[in-house]
Amino acid sequence: MATGWTYIPDFISDPAELLRTAINEVAWTQQMRSRQTASLGIPYNYAGASYPEAPWLPAIWDVALAVEARFGFTPTNCLMNYYPTGEHSIGWHTDDVTILAPDTGIAIVSLGETRTLRLRAGVDPNFEYTHLPLAAGSLLYMTADLQHTHKHCIKPEPGAGPRISLTFRHLTHAPPPVTTARWSRQGDGQGG
Ligand SMILES: O=C(O)CCC(=O)C(=O)O
Does 191 score more than 60 pLDDT? Predict the structure, then answer.
């Protein structure tokens, strides 16, 4: 079992309402083949995708404040992933933790259908798997150190309904727009 993560069920109280708001009010982009994405705050340009700086939606800023209260850092970015169906996914990858503020990690708040995040020890040829079902309203916190030892992904789960993940980070600065597919060096999937 991998360490370096914390799962908090029911971190937010009305994930169904926030799912509706996010589907309808976020300017989703189709920069990734396997899912839709969007970014609020300063951009997290990664995995071959680039975003403009964007104002926070009030409902998502409220969640950022809850992350601040629980983990002691103020998110400067929320990268959002929209999986309209169970066919949508995110491949094996690690996140760029070089631009995270010291002693901060990544907080993932889930809306909609429960999907399973898998962790595997990247250096272990026998692949140590940890399966984390991420229920609506939950928060998964991953430390920066976990990114050094493990990759993560969400595989297709045919039949699943819509899901959105809100991934909060305190970036120290916005990386430059990506002009080449950096994800190919970071993992073996379309991560980010
Ligand atoms: O959708 C998720 O829960 C995972 C998102 C993720 O791995 C990422 O944005 O790097």
Answer: no
What domain range includes position 104? Answer: 5-186
Q: Is 152 touching ligand 1 by the criterion CB < 6 Å?
A: yes
Three-state DSSP state, 23: helix
Q: Is residue 165 part of a domain?
A: yes
**DSSP summary character for residue 42:** S
Pocket-testing residue among 152, 168, 171, 190, ligand 1, by greatest number of atoms within 8 A of Cβ: 152
Q: Which atom of ligand 1 is nearest to the CA of 192?
A: 10
Band of residue 18 on the pLDDT scale cut at 50, 70, 90: very high
- Domain CATH code at residue 107: 2.60.120.590
Q: What is the pTM for the complete model shown? A: 0.91
Supply the residue whose CA is at minimum distance from atom 2 of ligand 1.
165
Looking at the structure of the chain, the number of domains it has is 1
Asked if the structure places residue 18 within a domain, the reply is yes
192 is a domain residue = no
79 lines ligand 1 (CB under 6 A): yes
Residues 58-93: b if buried by 16+ CB within 10 A, e if exposed: eebeebbebbeeebebebbbbbbbbbbbbebbbbbb
Atom from ligand 1 closest to the CA of residue 140: 3
pLDDT tens digits along 95-112: 999 999 999 999 999 999
Give residue 71 CA to ligand 1 midpoint distance, Å: 18
In a domain, 166, yes or no: yes
Stated as kind and residue range, the H or E segment containing 77 is strand 77-83
